[in-house]
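Researcher: I'd like a candidate sequence for this fold, 332 residues long. If you have to choose between options at a position, lean toward the conservative one.
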């Protein structure tokens, strides 16, 4: 039996719900983080794409504030982990403790058991501790002492990190970076935004006044709507071509993985849904390519000497890979 086609009116209502929730969350975060609307929208896109977000920038520009504001805007379980050199993997995943009353081992869940996990300065922990997140982020489960525990949906890791050049940091392993759907940088605020920040943050803590504008049930529902956004065959091929180009580029010694292709399409669906479109356009992939691909790439030694960046390489690829015709709408 063939599946029944979805009612177009019902699909439009679902897309309006996605866009409405996205705008509410974005507006709530902007009451705390000013002048960074593009980065905030990318963060909401990653949330609706069932992904994880890496916020990388120099200290003091609001990385942790953005992560906490996104978490507070949704009424769900939130845990914060301060990554330090002495943090142990069991602090994240949990540990089995012997209960003398029951004479049996009892599992004590770690900080990862929440809908949104804020990992502050993730690259200050050792690679061993960082690797404790690998199973959680990809399979949404935790295995301790041979027993697997499922994580509740929605589940999102929002991690902040300082650039690797900063003292006391460890570079994230390639497998860890590949599990983050997107990486964003906030940058310094504009003078006007910084002046406004002095007024709002100097008189109090605006984060404490941030009220939730959504909840985990609504997020889970609109994520289901995002999954139904149409991706034409030509757009799928374009995504594969972009990722394949990273594997053959002379400035790179490591290109993007097949997981990157999947994340690019998921993010494209979420981006389109936030614009109330039921299809992904090539422009969506172009807009998201740098955030989704650049942190997964490793430059060659020659490119590093020439002071090239992975963002430059992604821009070159976008300029050279042929763009499909703009016929990406959902078929009638």
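Model: Candidate sequence:
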């Amino acid at each position: 039996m063939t599946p029944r086609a979805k009612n177009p009116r019902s699909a439009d209502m679902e897309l309006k719900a996605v866009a409405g929730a996205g705008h509410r969350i974005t507006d709530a975060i902007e009451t705390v983080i000013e002048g960074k609307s593009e980065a905030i929208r990318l963060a909401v896109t990653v949330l609706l794409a069932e992904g994880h977000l890496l916020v990388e920038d120099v200290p003091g520009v609001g990385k942790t504030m953005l992560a906490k504001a996104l978490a507070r805007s949704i009424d769900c379980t939130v845990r914060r982990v301060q990554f330090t050199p002495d943090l142990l993997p069991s602090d994240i995943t949990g540990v089995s403790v012997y209960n003398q009353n029951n004479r049996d081992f009892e599992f004590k869940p770690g900080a990862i058991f929440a809908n949104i996990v804020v990992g502050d300065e993730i690259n200050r922990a050792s690679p061993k501790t960082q690797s404790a997140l690998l199973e959680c982020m990809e399979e949404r489960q935790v295995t301790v002492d041979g027993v697997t525990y499922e994580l509740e949906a929605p589940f999102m890791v929002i991690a902040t990190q300082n650039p690797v050049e900063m003292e006391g940091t460890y570079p994230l392993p390639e497998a860890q970076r590949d599990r983050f759907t997107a990486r964003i940088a906030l940058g310094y605020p504009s003078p006007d935004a910084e002046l406004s920040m002095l007024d709002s943050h100097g008189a109090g803590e605006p984060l404490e006044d941030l009220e939730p504008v959504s909840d985990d049930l609504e997020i889970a529902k609109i994520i289901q709507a995002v999954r139904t956004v149409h991706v034409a065959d030509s757009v799928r091929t374009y995504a594969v071509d972009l990722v394949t180009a990273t594997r053959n580029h002379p400035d790179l010694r490591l290109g993007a993985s097949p997981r990157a292709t999947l994340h690019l399409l998921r993010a494209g669906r979420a981006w389109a849904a936030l614009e109330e479109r039921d299809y992904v356009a090539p422009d969506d992939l172009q807009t998201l390519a740098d955030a989704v691909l650049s942190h997964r790439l490793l430059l060659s030694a020659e490119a590093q000497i020439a002071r090239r960046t992975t963002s430059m390489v992604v821009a070159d690829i976008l300029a050279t890979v042929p763009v499909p015709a703009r016929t990406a709408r959902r078929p009638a």
